[in-house]
Amino acid sequence: MEKVQEPNRNLAESKARQLCGFRIGKDFYAIPVLEVQEVVKPQVKTSVPLAPEYIDGLINLRGQVVTAINMRRLLKIEDDYNEEDYMNIIVKHSDGLYSLVVDEVLDVMEVEMDRFSETPPTLEANIKNYIHGVFKLEDKLLILLNLNKVFEIKK
Known about the structure:
The protein starts with 8 loop residues before the first helix and ends with a helix. About 10% of the residues lie in helices and about 45% in strands. It has a single domain (about 10-150), classed as CATH 2.40.50.180. The strands form 2 sheets. It has a 6-stranded mixed β-sheet, with no helix packed on it. Residues about 1-10 have low confidence and may be disordered. The longest helix has 5 residues, at about 10-15. The protein has 4 helices and 12 strands. About 25% of the residues are buried. By secondary structure, the protein is mostly beta strands. The radius of gyration is 15 Å and the shape is globular.
C-alpha cells in the first residue's frame, strides 16, 4: 500500500525542503511538493449524497474521478469566502486521487529546515493530527499539513 511520505526526524537532517504553499482563509499552509500531481482551476463538481460536509463532491479530471476535499470546511476555517474562486491541488494517495480545495495556490518554495518547529504541545490533539509542524518565515508562519491524517478522516 503506497503512503504519502511523511516528514519525520530525517526531515531535520536535510538542509532545505521544497513545499507547495497555499492559502486557506488568511493563513498559509504547505505540503511537500513531491506529493502534488498537479494544480487545476475550478472544476464542475458532482455532489455526493450523505457525504461529510468537508467533501465538496467528485470531479472528472480527464477521465479520472477525483474526490474533492474542501480544506476550509475540514479545518473549520470561516471568513469571507467566494465559493467560485478556489484552486484544486491534485494529490495521489494509496486509494486514488484527491483534490485539496484551497483558496489560493502559492509558489513552490524552498524552506530551510532550521526554520522548522514541531507542532506546539498546547494545541488540541485533534488539531495536531493534521499538522506536522510549522515553518517560521520572515513575515508569517507556514503550517505543514500531515496528508496521511487528512486522508484518514473519520467518516
